Amino acid sequence: MLVNRVGDFGLALGIMLVFYTFGSGDYATVFACAPSIAEQKVIFLGLEFSTLNCMCFLLFIGAVGKSAQVGLHT
């Protein structure tokens, strides 16, 4: 149950960051605007990351946690 909650939290943060950055969750909008924010930075947990890298990492944590893959499996 804990592993599933970690996945939920990562997925929720990733989706919120996508919506905050692009103002939409629509794939066409996100993929069309992605090159324009390639150099944009975001501060997460007190560290500075590339916005796209942070989005991808959080969505990846969500996918790994929800499907119980290596790293977030019991």
Structure characterization notes:
This protein has 74 residues and is mostly helical. The chain has one domain (2-63). It contains three helices and two strands. The protein has helices at 2-22, 27-33, 51-66, and strands spanning 41-44, 47-50. Strand 1 (41-44) and strand 2 form a beta hairpin. It is globular.
What is this structure's SSE topology?
Elements (H helix, E strand, L loop, with lengths): L1 H21 L4 H7 L7 E4 L2 E4 H16 L8
Antiparallel strand pairs: 1-2
Helix pairs in contact: 1-3
Quick synopsis:
Helix content is 59%, strand content 11%. It has three helices and two strands. A two-stranded antiparallel sheet has the order 1-2.
Mean pLDDT across the residues is 85
Principal-axes geometry comes out as: globular
Mind telling me the C-alpha Rg? 13 Å
Instruction: Give the helix/strand class.
Output: mainly alpha
Largest sheet: 2 strands, antiparallel
> Can you count the beta strands?
2
Number of helices: 3
Number of domains: 1
Spatial order of strands in the largest sheet: 1-2
| Share of residues in strands | 5-15%
Features:
74 residues; mainly alpha
